[in-house]
Amino acid sequence: MRSTRVQQSDQVRPTEDDEVAAAGSELIGGPIGRRALPGGHWWTPVRVIALVALGMFALGLVQKIPCYDGAWFFGASSQYTHACYSDIPHLFQGRGFADGLVPYFDKLSGDMQYLEYPVLTGVFMEVASWLTPGGDAIQHREQVYWLVNAGMLMICAVVIAVCVTRTHRRRPWDGLLLALAPAFALTATINWDLLAVALTAAAMLMWSRGRAIAFGVLLGLATAAKLYPVLLLGPLLLLCWRAGKWREFGHALGGAAGSWLVVNLPVMLLAPEGWAKFYTFSQERGVDFGSFWLLLSQHMSQPLSTDTVNTLAMVLMVLACAGIAVLTLTAPRRPRFAQLAFLVVAAFILTNKVYSPQYVLWLIPLAVLARPRWRDFLIWQAAEVVYFLGIWMYLAFTTSGDKQQGLPTGGYQLATAIHLLATLYLCAVIVRDVLLPERDVVRRPGDDDPSGGVLDGAPDLHAYGRAAQEPRHAASYDAGEAVEWGTESGRRKPAWGVADDDEEGRQGP
Predict the structure, then answer these.
(1) Composition bias, kind Acidic residues: at what positions (predicted)?
(2) DSSP state string for 251-306
């Protein structure tokens, strides 16, 4: 088996590749030197980024201290004025975990009836409840339940950081974008989204290593925890169509369907009503926070009905997917998998009835892989921090009664518009990179699609429009010369002294 490791001298360093990263590095002594971190040193990019991610996660926990000390329990508005709200302690009792009820099988009191989360997330919540001791006052048990979940979610955060760091072999330091993302730290323990994000990040890593079945299994598990990961199969289908990689896509699809069924089928058969609650709740819930539908409804004398919004949202999502399909098949160079993955998930969130503050967690790992530029990433993160503060201040305003403490409706609408426009901005620069691949920083050194697995360096078999007129290989816009590709496998001949992967070598991490 030939080596698949990339030498440190071949790694792209942000301080040499990105002017914002170079300027920011002055705070810690300036750009890294050529002789820094010699080979074999303990401080590898993966370890550094994992530790930074742990540190930022810990800061996010510290930010929740006012709520942990009582704001979750002794006042509706104080958890909002301190911007430390979390669903986790409230749902410990509200979804029956404090009483030992079994998710999906036991009915809840009130209107909810059953747990409204996908099965694997329900398992995650149930395991955390088993680790929470009983017998104490309910408030103390809720605190411990939040701490237990925070510990489990911290493991997910490290998994995400490691997987993102290792996906692009020549750009491991891009993982610092994720590790230092303020919105990641602030929203990590609002809900249980990090479980699905971790499984999705691991799936992306497996695909980048050519392990289609492992990718499918992990993506199926991620979809069993949250619905959005299944969307990645759409872009993958288009990319495999353009490259003629049908067998690999079939393996991915089969793995995803199989693992999803393994998790869901027992509950589906034994507790069909409880299993279906997540899907019926998603259809029946009205327009909610963070979405442009809420902005629209707040400016209408007679807001649209839930059924109408469902229909319109589906139409907009279908149109967005059609646009992504056209972009994929007609772009002058086959788009990178991470670029399309970000676009389709962003389209889903932007057209959805709700854009909760923790949904940014879905996008952050994909944004790092799709557009690893510090300026654009920080603009987007700043907008998400504005929205994070805006929604809690708005809820403080609506729950503070005569005190009128917090952000009025107009201010919240402005914060919502800022975070929607920032997400659209990031989509726009990614689309520009697809249409003008010479602007893509990932491809600038001569790479094709580091997260593409079998797609990386594969020749096009099906392309249309302008793409059909281009040479059927990726071009190296950095040097203005065509990169040579293998005639059989279509893989790039290495340009930086690193042996290319053979079939066996792609299995190694």
Answers:
(1) 499-509
(2) HHHHHHHHHHHHHHHHHHHH-HHHHHHHHHHHHH----TTSHHHHHHHT-SSPPPH
DSSP string, 57-108: HHHHHHHTHHIIIIITTS-TTHHHHTT---HHHHHHHHTTTTTTPPTTTSPP
Establish how many alpha carbons lie within 13 A of residue 392's alpha carbon, considering only the half-sphere containing its beta carbon: 23
Position 465 scores a pLDDT of 72
> Is the whole model's pTM more than 0.85, yes or no?
yes
Six-digit token pair at 16? 């040499």
Question: In this structure, what token pair is assigned to residue 318?
Answer: 């279908």
Give the integer Cα–Cα distance in Å for 341 and 347.
10
In the three-class reduction of DSSP (H, G, I as helix; E, B as strand; rest coil), residue 14 is classed as helix
CA atoms of 55 and 188, how far apart (whole Å) = 13
Report helix, strand and coil shares of the chain as percent, to nearest 5.
Answer: 65, 0, 35
Strand partners, 476: 481
The CA-to-CA distance between both ends of the chain, in Å, stands at 13
CB 422 within 8 A of CB 217: no
The answer to whether residues 129 and 170 touch, using CB atoms and an 8 Å cutoff, is no
**Nearest residue to 255 via CA among 199, 205, 213, 196:** 213
Tell me the three state secondary structure of residue 7. Answer: coil
Q: Look up residue 450 and give its two tokens.
A: 């580091």
To which residue do tokens 């088996």 refer?
A: 1
> What's the CA gap between 167 and 338, in Å, rounded?
10
Maximum Cα–Cα distance for the chain, whole Å? 74
DSSP 191-254: SSHHHHHHHHHHHHHHHHTT-HHHHHHHHHHHHHH-SGGGGGHHHHHHHHHHHT-HHHHHHHHH
Count of CB atoms situated within 10 Å of the CB of 484: 12
* Integer Cα distance of 250 and 232 in angstroms: 14
In this structure, are residues 318 and 297 in contact, taking their beta carbons and an 8 Å threshold?
A: no
Q: Which residues have a Cβ under 8 Å from the Cβ of 262 and sit 6 or more positions away?
A: none
Radius of gyration of the chain (CA): 23
Asked if residues 92 and 124 have their Cβ atoms less than 8 Å apart, the reply is no
pLDDT, residue 43, reads: 81
User: 225 is written with which tokens?
Assistant: 């925890």
Point out the residues of the chain with pLDDT beneath 50.
Answer: 1-4, 9, 21-22, 25-26, 29, 38-40, 473-509
